[in-house]
Every structure is written in C-alpha cells, then in structure tokens.
C-alpha cells in the first residue's frame, strides 16, 4: 500500500514538472562573443588581434543573401542584397563592442532569428562576414574568427574573410629573428 502511494506521488511530481516546463518562456537570440586572431604575414603565429575592430549586424529575412560589395561599404556599414543589388541596408540593428584585452574581443547582442554579421579590421584593411541563425534559449555563444591579412580571401571558422588589398605589404606581428649574429670581438 505504501509503495502505491509513493508511486502516485512520484507520478504526480513528474506530471507537475512536465506541465511547468511547457510554460517556460522561450527567447530567440544570443550574446555572440568573438575571439579574433590575426596573422599579418605567413610566418606569424595566429595571435589575438592587438587593435580595435569594428563589428555590426543586420537583421535580415530568412533565405535572403547579402554581401559587403567593397572595402568602402565595409567601413560605411553598408550591405547589398545579392539577388537585388539596388537594395542596400545602411543602418545596422546591432553595433558590437570591442575590448582588445578580453579573450573574446567582440560582443554583439543578437536578438533576431536571422542576422548578417560583419567584422572590420581597419588597420589591415580586411573584413569578414557571416550569416547566422540565432539559437533559442542560448544566452551566450562563443566563437572564433581567424583573419589572415596576407591571404586574398577565403573561409575560416564559419566566416568569409575578404582581403581587398592582398598585395599590400604588412608588418609582421612577431619580429623575425636576426639570422646574422654579431660576434663580440675583444682585443
């Protein structure tokens, strides 16, 4: 008899837990944190970006395709609809914050289902773009972005990285070691 009462109590508890979880408020979006690493020349290791970056995002319709057409557009925070080049967006809904001393230097508050993000490196004159579908009930998303200033363009960690000036000479982030060592001559 006692076992039957215990089973009834446990069953009622499971039902109550199930019912209360049905009323849980669902939230679309996430705080998107980006750890940006950069490589100025091929011999550099990938290092955390040592300078300020610009980041922004537009809320876009599902299935739409957007791009940053030029370097000037990246700086002006302007994106173009690939299927209708006359349609441009120039006022991003999200402007990211940058803290170069943090592990994840960039943070964007993304509270729409579909977003088109842009990260701009004004020092090396390169930028990266990414279409992203935000998750439900996922408060923080941490990701990485590897930017190679010496490459023309490519994809890295889910991002399309564009270098409009691939032939520009860039200073290494890590100075090359001198191959010639001077001898100390004592007389």
Tag the structure with descriptive keywords.
187 residues; alpha+beta; 6-stranded antiparallel β-sheet; 5-stranded mixed β-sheet; 2 helices; 14% helix; disordered C terminus
Topology, please?
Elements: H1 2-22, E1 30-39, E2 47-48, E3 54-59, E4 66-67, H2 71-76, E5 79-81, E6 88-89, E7 94-95, E8 97-98, E9 106-110, E10 114-121, E11 126-133, E12 140-148, E13 153-156, E14 159-162
Parallel strand pairs: 1-12
Antiparallel strand pairs: 1-2, 1-9, 3-7, 3-10, 4-5, 5-6, 8-9, 10-11, 11-14, 13-14
Provide structural commentary:
- The protein is α+β, with helices and mostly antiparallel strands and 187 residues long.
- Helices cover 14% and strands 36% of the residues.
- It has helices at residues 2-22, 71-76, and strands spanning 30-39, 47-48, 54-59, 66-67, 79-81, 88-89, 94-95, 97-98, 106-110, 114-121, 126-133, 140-148, 153-156, 159-162.
- The protein has a six-stranded antiparallel beta sheet with strand order 7-3-10-11-14-13. Strands 1, 2, 8, 9 and 12 form a five-stranded mixed beta sheet that branches. The protein has a three-stranded antiparallel beta sheet with strand order 4-5-6, with no helix packed on it.
- A hairpin with a 7-residue loop joins strand 1 (30-39) and strand 2 (47-48).
- The longest helix has 21 residues, at 2-22.
- The N and C termini lie far apart (105 Å).
- Mean pLDDT is 87; it is low at 179-185.
Could you write a compact summary of the structure shown?
The protein is of the alpha+beta class and about 190 residues long. About 15% of the residues lie in helices and about 35% in strands. The strands form three sheets. A six-stranded antiparallel β-sheet has the order 7-3-10-11-14-13.
């Amino acid at each position: 008899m006692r076992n039957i009462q215990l089973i009834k109590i446990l069953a009622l508890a499971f039902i109550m837990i199930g019912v209360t979880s049905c009323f849980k408020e669902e939230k679309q979006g996430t705080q998107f944190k980006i750890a940006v690493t950069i490589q100025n020349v091929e011999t550099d290791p990938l290092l955390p970006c040592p300078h300020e970056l610009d980041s922004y995002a537009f809320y876009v319709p599902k299935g739409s395709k957007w791009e940053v057409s030029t370097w000037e557009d990246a700086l002006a925070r302007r994106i173009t609809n690939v299927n209708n080049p006359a349609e441009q967006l120039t006022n991003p809904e999200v402007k990211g914050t940058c803290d170069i001393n943090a592990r994840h230097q960039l943070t964007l508050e993304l509270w729409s289902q579909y977003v088109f993000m842009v990260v701009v490196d004004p020092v090396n004159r390169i930028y990266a773009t990414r279409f992203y579908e935000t998750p439900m009930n996922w408060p923080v998303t941490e990701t990485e972005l590897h930017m190679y200033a010496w490459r023309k363009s490519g994809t890295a960690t889910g991002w399309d990285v564009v270098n409009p000036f691939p032939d520009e000479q860039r200073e290494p982030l890590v100075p090359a070691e001198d191959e010639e060592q001077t001898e100390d001559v004592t007389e």
